[in-house]
Amino acid sequence: MNHRQHPAPRPTTVTRSGPLTWVQQWHWFEHTIPAPRRVNPTPLADHCQVPPGATVDDVLAALASLTARHEALRTTVDPLEPVQHVHRPEWAPPPVDCVEVADVDAGTLETATAALAARPIDPERNPPWLARVLLVAGEPRAVLVATHHVLIDGWGLAVLIGQLHELLRGAAPARTPVAHPLDTLAAQPLERARAAEREWLTRLATNPTNVLAPFGGRADGAGRHRLQHRSVEAYDDLDRVARRYRVSAEVVVLAALAHEVAGRTGEHRFLASVVVSNRARAALRGSVGVRALTVPVQIDLRPGAAFGEVAASVAAACAAAYRHGQYRVAELVAAQARMDRRRGVVAVHTIEYNCYSWPRDYLVPGAETRPDGPATWIRSEPDEPCDTLYVDLSRDAGVVTLDVTVGDHLLDAEQAVALPVRLCALLRALAEGARCPVPARALAPAAPGWWRAPQGWVCLPRLAEVVRAHPGVLDVTVTPAGETGRGGKGPRPAGENGRGGEGPALAGGTGRGGEGPRPARETAREGYRPALAGEAGRRKGEGPRLVARARVVPGVTSADLHRHVLDHLGEVPGLLAPDGYVLSPAGLGSGPLPDRPGAAGSAAGTPRLTARPPATEAERALAAAVAAVAAPDGLPAGSSDNPVAVDMNGCLADHGVTLVAVPRLLALLHRSGHTGIASDELAGTASLGHLAAALEPLRDRAHRGGETSP
Which residues form the Condensation domain (predicted)? Predict the structure, then answer.
């Protein structure tokens, strides 16, 4: 979380240095997030068999050859600045050890690979990879490799394992130069990146959020489930369906996921985030450096459509999205934080989907392994819940493997285990010729308390609890205040308005007449100015409104409540900032709260938040750190035209600061004697005042010594 200052790499070992690429910046930031809070903690680890006759010396020689060829294997990153350093091949001892085992059967390989993946890797001081040779009676039988995602991605690991196996089989070492991320810096397409960022923001703003939560999971769900499902039968079924509809097997599985979500929720328009390798050029296909990013795939399904139409629609959406695979992640995250705070809702894609090209057999079977049928292994962890359904597909050796990570508030353990089983059953039905039309409505109604707003689903009791938690609030009710075109009859019941966007059109959240969100750099200064939450698309006549009616003690204002809700958007799932607040004084008694704006002592409408300077010691420390790392195009600290240079009512992105400055900001807080904020909290929607309230006095502690590869 907080980094201590490290000495710079020794000049005698470094051959060249330079900035991190846009993709690397995200993974560099991600490795500063505490492991329980990471959205996808899956390690990158794999193995290959050692051919007969190869010795341990052959394995070491092959790894040394690969290290010499791939600069990414001898690259470190700076702990505080987005900079990388390439070292000489012999700069550090090879991170390889040998372990004697009784056999190298599948169970042993799974256990050993998982154990290696769990070992810490410190990409700031050491090589970003580990290797372990499994010996049987002193002879090498398998090589396990784990890599850190900040410098090597999944495609790169597959390349590395493949080349290692070829060298062990006696192939001559390749002499062709391999591109390092430093070699691609000048070719990063800025205008294309800005277009991709606009596309991401538009898709996030025009798709519903919290799609899955009302239709599954536990109301008090905490933590997440990680499971792996393997099916031999699904391998052939998947091939048959792909040939039938003339799309790839990967598209078929994504289409099946979309079909499942539509059937469960009744939503027919939602967003999927799909990982692409960004290696279309032949020169990059042999690179192990990290290049993969996600693209926004728009899922649009027609109720009643046969699966063939679904597959064709998903394939077209993927093709349209793939051109948006290169963008500035740091700028996009900041732009989304500003947009979410302005709209009063955290935009979340419903599905995140990835396709692996290497065996994913390192997840160790747990106590819940089913004794019959396809193998399904599940582990439930008390980590921070994740708000997206993560599904990874791999096809290897005649087996389809589906890895699932999902928050307990989205799917409970039983529902999580049933998901891949249902997907495989759908593939079987399709392979046998079924049409499998898209359901027109949800299979079951939404859970009590959930309401479909134009921006997505909101849990009204949970929102009321958050408002009630503000000091000085004695009682509160949160209710929709009517819907256009229903003659004042009020909103549709929860679930009726959730049929694939049949309700009021979703606002883009820009306040610019539906032109779409502005680029990140264009909104850096504008985002600093406190703005009305949901300033576009939630005006009179444009859809149902959500109103919070509260009885409060004197001194509590609607701006106080609105700021309080905005500060909890990223902490409490299922929230949406109300469009208006109606306040009544505590002295009016304990009867029903006023049902209309204009009641005595009330303040109607969404309030404008005014800037606030730091007031406490913790706030001053955080403000000083923010001012020190403020981006060049952010507001100048102490400028005469804006004396409140750091606004404690704004989030970090409102000050023009992106995630690449977060490690240095945390180090400055560390130096001033404060800790208690996670790096991802700083990059989110919470105001600086809310974050400062969580700061704690620093206790001396040792350097974390690396971490498990994310």
Answer: 56-344
